[in-house]
Design brief:
The protein is α+β, with helices and mostly antiparallel strands. The protein has helices spanning about 30-40, 75-85, 130-135, 155-160, 165-170, 210-220; strands at about 5-10, 20-25, 45-55, 55-60, 65-70, 95-100, 100-110, 110-115, 120-125, 140-145, 145-150, 175-180, 190-195, 200-205, 225-230, 235-245, 245-250, 255-260. Strand 4 (about 55-60) and strand 5 (about 65-70) form a beta hairpin. The longest helix is centred in the first third of the chain and has 12 residues, at about 75-85.
Length: about 260
């Protein structure tokens, strides 16, 4: 039986910007090898697999190389498809059962609001040669359970980064978030995210990274609500609101392609 699959650009309201994700709608559990093969075939930073479960959906995310514990843009894409295809009423909360616990999404006047766990970073020893790997001085180095966080001097440094991917892939983590204050009043901070170890040299817009960036910049700027820009080649906007041990991440999404997997 054919399996519906969709390509969605997340954290953007315009086609061919933001972060593309594939959303696969399952009607029954599939072997993990099949899930991995589909993700490799899609060759996007993440493919999301949705399966009805109780009052919500089981949700798993795979890169072309590994399964990940937390992913923002493919969750935005998943909620968008559920509402757009009429699988869930627009005024209903989308509930996802994941490796990071229960995650929810709500539609907010054309925006999609995710309720995710906060993932603050703690300062760590800077002897990891991250300055050598990134090619720029590091103002601060931190780490949470998933990624390293590096603050650099300014937005120009973020945008001009050309990391050594070979060295970066040797780090024992999913990836490295590099950030600075924004050079414009439109955004509070900017970032980029590199994860070659997970099969993603650079992720265009990374929701889960903002679970770390939000608490970090909230403390630095004295704010609980911020607007961020991920300065990849595609680029994307993420609104961040701090809610204690949770973070609300808000973005838009647009469907690019609809099809079926027939194998």
């Amino acid at each position: 039986m054919a399996v519906p699959i969709f390509f969605v650009d997340a954290f953007s309201g315009a086609p061919f910007t933001g972060n593309p994700a594939a959303v696969c709608l399952l009607d029954r559990p599939r072997p993990e090898e099949w899930l991995r093969n589909v993700a490799r075939e899609m060759n996007l930073s993440e493919t999301a697999f949705l399966l009805p479960e109780g009052d919500g959906f089981s949700l798993r995310w795979f890169t072309p190389a590994v399964e990940v514990d937390l992913c923002g843009h493919a969750t935005v894409a998943s909620a968008h498809i559920l509402w757009e295809r009429g699988l869930l009423p627009l005024d209903n909360e989308a509930r996802f059962f994941t490796k990071s616990g229960l995650l929810t999404a709500r539609e907010r006047k054309g925006w999609i609001e995710l309720n995710f766990p906060a993932e603050p970073a703690k300062p760590v020893d800077s002897s990891l040669n991250l300055e050598e790997i990134l090619g720029v001085p590091a103002f601060l180095v931190g780490r949470n359970r998933i990624n390293y966080l590096v603050e650099v001097a300014d937005e120009a440094a973020v945008r001009g980064l050309k990391p050594d991917m070979s060295l970066l892939s040797g780090l024992e983590c999913r990836g490295v978030i590099v950030t600075s204050r924004s050079s414009t009043k439109e955004f509070d901070f900017v970032s980029r995210f590199f994860a070659p170890r997970a099969g993603i040299p650079e992720d265009p817009v990374t929701g889960s990274a903002h679970c770390c960036l939000g608490p970090y910049w909230g403390k630095r700027l004295g704010k609980t609500a911020m607007t961020a820009y991920q300065a990849s080649a595609r680029g994307g906007i993420v609104k961040v609101e701090l809610m204690g041990e949770r973070v609300l991440l808000t973005g838009k999404a647009v469907t690019i392609l609809a099809g079926e997997i027939v194998s």
